[in-house]
Design goal:
With about 400 residues, the protein is an all-alpha fold. Helices cover about 70% and strands about 0% of the residues.
């Protein structure tokens, strides 16, 4: 995705709107009941259901429901942590900029004041030469007693030049004093703004830290339940927990992508109907079925390990699980380098797209695990499942990314 968009693009705005709407449709778990309210299946329940196909199907559905519910509270709290952390980061950036502005204005004000003082001192010295009293005014005495007319004219010229210089220096002093006064006023206002931002930044940072702690606690609790629930699914299906995890993630992400495509088609059809009824040209271009362009993604959250090389190594090791060969890795590297720089904490400040694959909304990543905000592997798992469902292969996603402007997949 293009990181610096030179002009607004209607298609991009439509993509963001569609993605946000779809996010509300396909991630109901984020607003579900807290994980603490979940009634978890027991291993006795699982064992009893294994001997009866109908009971087994019923127990699978029950385990899946518990799994979604277990992830709900962690997803909600992680979203809050993401938003409050981004707000704290922005507050810190605003404070730093205000501090630089206040410091710069104060320095310029002091420089202007020093210039004014020098000009006033020089003007005072010139005035002393011009307006000394008669007993010590050597220049006036020399002019009055000069016998040589040429000498008299020279002295009168010198006096006129001195008077002109004094007037000029006085004007310079006045201008410098006015500049210094204006800069001091600006510096005072800037300092007031800096102090206000500093006062606001502290509670904002405290709120973010508290939200992060609550999210971490919810994630830890949810992951412990999720591990057991995946193991129960594996027991019911004669499989492995990792296979079931990958299957459930793939199914959830495929549902997200399908709903997003349906919403995109509906939006395009609605736009076409409006255009036809008004006989006006359509304002939209494509109908993206992926995260919106990353724009100027930037590190936004504390407590998120950022290891692009490690994320790439994990993604490469996971390609075979999706039926892809190593020939797809180069396309994947290019795709997510453009989207996020492979940074697990990359956040698009305008759209809210987040993470290595730039999921929009960010909470979609919860389909791959409760630790989606901080774990690059969870983000990669979601991204690979999304690519598999929507484009078949990373090279298919990269081809699409490069075929549209602004870039998206």
């Amino acid at each position: 995705m293009r990181r610096n968009t030179a002009r607004p693009n209607p298609a991009r705005h439509a993509a963001v709107l569609v993605a946000v709407v779809v996010g509300a449709l396909v991630v109901p778990a984020v607003t579900a009941a807290p994980a603490s309210a979940t009634e978890y299946p027991t291993w006795q329940d699982v064992e009893r259901a294994k001997g009866d196909e109908q009971a087994k199907r019923s127990e699978v559905s029950r385990v899946q429901a518990a799994l979604r519910s277990a992830q709900a509270e962690a997803a909600r709290r992680s979203q809050v942590a993401l938003e409050t952390s981004a707000a704290a980061t922005q507050a810190e950036a605003d404070l730093a900029e205000a501090t630089r502005t206040a410091t710069s204005l104060q320095a310029h004000a002091e420089q202007a004041a020093a210039t004014a003082r020098r000009a006033q001192t020089r003007a005072g010295r010139l005035a002393a030469d011009l307006y000394r009293d008669g007993s010590t005014d050597q220049m006036t005495t020399r002019i009055a007693t000069a016998g040589d007319p040429d000498q008299l004219l020279y002295q009168l010229g010198a006096l006129d030049q001195l008077s002109t210089t004094w007037s000029s220096v006085m004007e310079d002093a006045s201008v410098a004093a006015g500049t210094a006064s204006s800069l001091h006023d600006q510096a005072a206002r800037a300092e007031h703004e800096r102090a206000s931002l500093a006062a606001a930044a502290e509670p904002t940072a405290a709120t973010a830290k508290s939200a992060q702690q609550r999210a971490d606690s919810a994630v830890a609790s949810t992951e412990s339940h999720s591990d057991e629930l995946y193991a129960q699914l594996a027991a019911l299906r004669d499989s492995t927990a990792e296979t079931q995890r990958r299957y459930e993630v793939g199914k959830a992400v495929a549902a997200q992508a399908a709903a997003q495509r349906a919403a995109a088609r509906a939006a395009a059809e609605a736009a076409a109907r409006r255009a036809a009824s008004s006989a006006a040209p359509s304002s939209g271009g494509g109908t993206p079925s992926s995260p919106a362009p990353a724009g100027n993604a930037y590190p936004s959250t504390d407590g998120v390990p950022v290891d692009p090389a490690g994320a790439q190594a994990y993604a490469r090791s996971a390609l075979g699980s999706y039926g892809w060969g190593d020939d797809q890795f180069g396309c994947l590297v290019s795709l997510w380098k453009q989207e996020s720089g492979w940074r697990a904490n990359a956040l698009n400040p305008s759209s809210g797209a987040y993470g290595i694959p730039q999921a929009l909304p960010a909470s979609k990543l919860a389909a791959a695990g409760a630790d989606w905000r901080t774990n690059a592997r969870t983000q990669v798992n979601w991204g690979l499942a999304y690519i598999k469902s929507s484009y078949g292969t990373p090279c298919g996603a990269w081809d699409h990314e490069m075929s549209v402007d602004p870039h998206w997949y």
